[in-house]
Specification:
Elements (H helix, E strand, L loop, with lengths): L2 H16 L7 H14 L1 H5 L1 E5 L3 E9 L14 E8 L1 E10 H8 L4 H28 L4 E3 L7 H10 L12 E5 H11 L2 H4 L5 E2 L2 E6 L12 E7 L4 E6 L3 E7 L4 E14 L6 E7 L1
Parallel strand pairs: 1-10, 5-13, 6-8
Antiparallel strand pairs: 2-3, 4-12, 6-9, 7-8, 9-13, 10-12, 11-12
Helix pairs in contact: 2-5
């Protein structure tokens, strides 16, 4: 296939991407959202909300319990709602003519391009989402004061968590950075470095998140931990996803830009404990 034929095939593939002003059709948008989730450790743990508008109400249980003593009367939980709002988010993928050539050789270049785009979008989104939940967690905070991650710190986080959220301890996770997870493994034995085995404290696993920040603090060498039920984290993605392309002839590159509206919110922020100022 000569270069002109490659460009013609590329034009056909991008015609699918940029039809309807670049707005993906509902089925395309749902497929793209699934690709985003597959690429992100964080989003696989969270609750994903495919939104029909830029804002949406999500429910939470504020009080009441499904567990009661025999002498207690059954009560209906007090259902409240919080608002999940999205913000403009953009990510871009630049392809050289050589890269484009290799993609267009595929039987389904549209799918190949969208998978590459999803990888870029998911990476940037995960960083934004993690930073968002770290800022929102303010009620139950433990200051590590420059100390590294330790069993004592994990215990302090557990003690900081309101007791009602410990009823379902098996659903909790310690979310932290890859570096913090590695440093903790070094302190508890070679087995946890040699083998890909989970690390637990009181039955709750330590879950490293690839894009969890490791540049916090005055010296940019600290991280944090979130103790929570990851399903308490709601990630909203408005289904109106736009894909646009722009070709730079002089540089021989093609730029593909994805525009989304994305938001993140704890359904119940009081069910989160956060450790700060953890030295790496």
């Amino acid at each position: 296939m000569n270069y002109r034929a490659i460009l013609e095939k590329a034009d056909l593939a991008f015609a699918d991407l940029t039809a309807n002003g670049g707005i993906l059709k509902p089925m395309q948008a749902q497929w793209f959202i699934r690709l985003l989730i597959e690429q992100s450790v964080f989003m696989q743990l969270a609750t994903i909300v495919s939104m029909r508008s830029p804002k949406q109400k999500i429910s939470k249980i504020k009080s009441g319990s499904y567990i009661r003593r025999p002498d207690q009367k059954a009560t209906t939980p007090d259902l409240l709602q919080v608002e999940l709002k999205t913000e403009l988010f953009k990510a871009e993928l630049c392809l050289s003519d050589e890269e484009l050539w290799n993609i267009i050789k595929h039987d389904k270049p549209y799918r190949a391009i969208m998978k590459m785009m999803a990888k870029v979008v998911s990476r940037d989104m995960e960083e934004m989402l993690v930073n968002g939940v770290l800022k929102q967690a303010t009620s139950n905070v433990v200051d590590a004061a420059g100390s590294p991650i330790s069993a004592d710190l994990l215990r302090d986080l557990m003690e900081k968590m309101p007791i009602k959220h410990l009823h379902y301890r098996h659903m909790l996770r310690y979310l932290t950075s890859v570096g913090a997870d590695f440093n903790y493994r070094k302190t508890i034995g070679d087995k946890f470095l040699r083998d890909d085995v989970p690390v637990f404290y009181w039955g709750v696993p330590l879950q490293p998140i690839p894009l969890f920040p490791e540049n916090l603090g005055a010296s940019n060498n600290q991280t944090a931990i979130l103790l929570c039920n990851p399903r308490n984290i709601h990630v909203g993605i408005w289904r109106q996803i736009r894909i646009e392309t722009s070709r730079d002839i002089s540089k021989g590159t093609l730029k593909i830009v994805a525009t989304l509206y994305v938001g993140v919110k704890f359904a119940e922020e009081s069910g989160v404990a956060k450790a700060i100022n953890i030295q790496l």
